[in-house]
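Q: Give me the 3D complex with adenosine-5'-triphosphate.
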Amino acid sequence: MADTPRLEVDHITCRFDGREVVRDVSFAVRPGEILCLLGPSGCGKSTSLRVIAGIERQSSGLVRADGAPLSDARMHLPPEARGVGLIFQDFALFPHLTVGQNVAFGLRGPRAAMAARVAELLERVDLGGYADKSPHMLSGGEQQRVALARALAPRPRIMLMDEPFSGLDNRLRDGIRDETLQLLKDEGTAVVLVTHEPEEAMRMADQIALMRDGKIVQKGAPYNIYNAPCDKAAAAFFSDINVILGTVQGALVDTPFGQFLAPGHADGTDVEIVFRPQHVKIDFDRGGRGPNPTPQDGTPARGVVERARFMGHESLVEFRMDFDGGILKATVPAVFLPKPGTPLWLTVRRDRCFVFAKKR
Ligand SMILES: Nc1ncnc2c1ncn2[C@@H]1O[C@H](COP(=O)(O)OP(=O)(O)OP(=O)(O)O)[C@@H](O)[C@H]1O
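A: Here is the predicted complex, encoded as structure tokens.
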């Protein structure tokens, strides 16, 4: 049935020595869909992947593929019986086999069909003429592509990838990521990709599951998680953030940038207003008057440039704000390097601000 997820992970919990390192994790992945488990080191991403692979056994919960259990309280299929492909960071090609033999390793059946599948995949990863070469003759990026072809050769219905691109230099990485993505989509494989890099998750994922302390704290399309983070830490995982403090009165918070809506927060709640540097607008001093307030941007507040750096695709400017002496950051998608000490005025895109109750 088209609507049956290829992979279902249902309330998985995993304990080591009584400590829960994966806590009640659930998600589903459809054919051709890529779900990224994203989170800081030690949050339980790899353990979740190993449970799906069958290398680790969960303490509770179940894993299903195409509606049939791979493991639950009663049974546990071994990794090789799951129809699951694996690619880890330290993927190792068999050094004594040629590239073609490496790709053919997991294949069974008539020789001609195997040879055709190997040739097709090597062509797809742009290594058409490489079948007879030895792995040590290949660059890191080429070896990575052979590993991908090898994992895909038996047409696994599910592919599990643990930081598969982290060993590659930046120049190679983007191209290989995009090629890999296309290949997995074309093959209709359901993919779970583990990464601690938000950029990688944004680039690759149809869904991101953001993990912290063993739990999924937020799950959704990349733009949803980026534009509607569930809390301050989720916002901060994707970019630098600015934070200003306030207290709710009548569903509003008064700040030096004007009033912000705080629906759902009771009067007297201390809140943090969180916004990304790219949602700060910079305006000129105009002899100390600054720009006029507008309904969209609210009230401008004055700051003095602390420092400005050009980052390649944008300039990052740090301001010491008059209202509290704190630092706020703004980015500009151009070369903009005002001198330290320059007074400028900032406004904040109110539709891009998040209001969270301050944690005590
Ligand atoms: N076999 C094990 N026995 C005991 N503890 C383990 C075992 N495997 C993982 N852990 C612990 O579980 C926690 C989660 O580890 P896991 O490797 O899943 O995290 P991760 O999010 O993938 O981190 P990283 O990005 O650093 O690989 C860590 O504290 C780790 O030390």
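A quick observation: The chain has a mean pLDDT of 92.
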